[in-house]
Amino acid sequence: MKGLLRFADGTQFEGTLIGDTEKIAAGxxxxxxxxxxxxxxxxxxxxxxxxxxxxYPLIGNYGTFAEAAESLFPWAEAVIVKDYARIPSHFxxxxxxxxxxxxxxxxxxxxxxxxxxxxxxxxxxTQHAVLASADTPASVLEEAMAAIDLSKSVYAVTTPEPYHVxxxxxxxxxxxxxxxxxxxxxxxVRGMSVTVVPCTITPTELDGYHPDGVVLSNxxxxxxxxxxxxxxxxxxxxxxxxxxxxxxxQLIGLAEGAHTYPLKFGHHGANHPLMDHKTGKVLxxxxxxGYAVEAAPLLDRYQIRLTNxxxxxxxxxxxxxxxxxxxQHHPEAGPGPWDSHYLFDxxxxxxxxxxxxxxx
Length: 360
Ligand SMILES: NC(=O)CC[C@H](N)C(=O)O
Known about the structure:
Blueprint: E1 2-7, E2 12-19, E3 25-32, H1 38-43, E4 50-54, E5 58-59, E6 78-80, E7 83-84, H2 97-103, E8 107-110, H3 114-124, E9 128-133, H4 138-146, H5 153-157, E10 163-165, E11 171-176, H6 181-189, E12 193-198, H7 203-208, E13 213-216, H8 230-239, E14 242-245, H9 247-255, E15 259-276, E16 281-294, E17 302-308, E18 314-319, E19 324-327, H10 342-359
Parallel strand pairs: 3-4, 4-6, 5-7, 6-8, 11-12, 11-13, 13-14, 14-19
Antiparallel strand pairs: 1-2, 1-9, 2-8, 3-9, 10-12, 15-16, 15-17, 17-18
Helix pairs in contact: 8-9
This protein binds glutamine.
The site of glutamine has 12 residues, from strand 16.
């Protein structure tokens, strides 16, 4: 069935619909340049409300399977590919890309020149668009476009109830703005007990868990719209060893007096180079963000820890005295390189030192 992607400015790309062909998808269009990891990308809750263009030209070779999921189901609104494998090959037995999309009622557009589409997004910038069957009436497309509302996205993806995974080590609370499974895994493999809580948690409720440390997770949407989350974020950085990842990093920036701004077309991929100013080493990192922090207002209290080597944007900062570390990229990877797993080791050290100081 013929399908189309129509941008807010009227620009249109055509292709063949795959997955749930009845669906009309509407959202912000972003491109991701990772060569593998399509299932992790679609199940990353930070893609809620977004139509994802995968620039690698053949998607689905190794199918889809439970272990690759970063959350319970795919959150991206829709996916766009050049070509996809009809018959996957995987030692564990795997479901095909098309069947996976159908099962989760997600629509895709295949046969698109994703290079041309990506060049268009790079020159026009991030925009809203609708993706649907080519015979959808214009009024229906307009209605779908007008209904796009990304202002409440974190509330749509956060866990409805707290849950706990016990290990022998310190107790860490993860505030879930749309947390990826790999974050909880990286804490767990270092022995940390993890309680994942809804993003609406209040400072008093958080204290009730007696955490040794707090992780503020990744998540979808424009960070500047989530002002009601900031009192808890401020409470964390003032009272607990805190690690902020992506949206968590941006919220710490906002709670500490900095501001955020939209990037022209964002960073979404698995090979972005960063400089770690503490170690003097370059890291190749997994990235997925459309906003960045303008950190100047907090530099009296924080040092820039990481800088993006493509565009020099701030990719992380660290408090000069307190145990607070933030990263704009994804040290948990999923998908992506493991170069920055050591930042979880640093967090564990911060948490242990905090606990020892408390019990001394
Ligand atoms: N992965 C994330 O946490 C993304 C953060 C934020 N929604 C952004 O796009 O910048």
